[in-house]
Amino acid sequence: MSEPAAINTVMRTLADPTRRAVFERIVGSQEITVAELTRGSGVTQGAISQHLKSLKQAGLVAERPEGRNVFYRAEPNGLAPLVDWMGLYGVFWRERFTHLRTLLKEIDP
Description:
By secondary structure, this protein is of the alpha+beta class. The chain has helices spanning 3-15, 17-27, 34-38, 45-57, 80-107; strands spanning 32-33, 61-66, 69-74. Helices cover 64% and strands 13% of the residues. The chain starts with a helix and ends with a helix.
C-alpha cells in the first residue's frame, strides 16, 4: 500500500467514533477477545466483529487465534503512516514557534 493510501486508510478507519473506541480499548489491553470488547460497550458482537475487520485491514490490530477464542492486540506499526504525516506538520509548527519567539524578544527585550 502506498503511503498516501495508507494514511487515508488509517484516517478513514479511525474516523468512526465506535471503531476508534474499540481501538482504544484494544490499545489499553495487552490482548482482548470479541466477547470482552462487546461486554459493556452497548454494541452488538456482530458490530464489534465488523469494526475489528476494518481495524485489521487497516493494519491497526493483529489477531491470535487460540482454541475457540481470537485475541486482538494493537499493531505497533499500524499508526506509523499517520505519525509520519503528522511529523511533517510538526516541522511547520516548530518553525512558526521559533519565529514567534524571535518576534516576542524583539517586542519585549
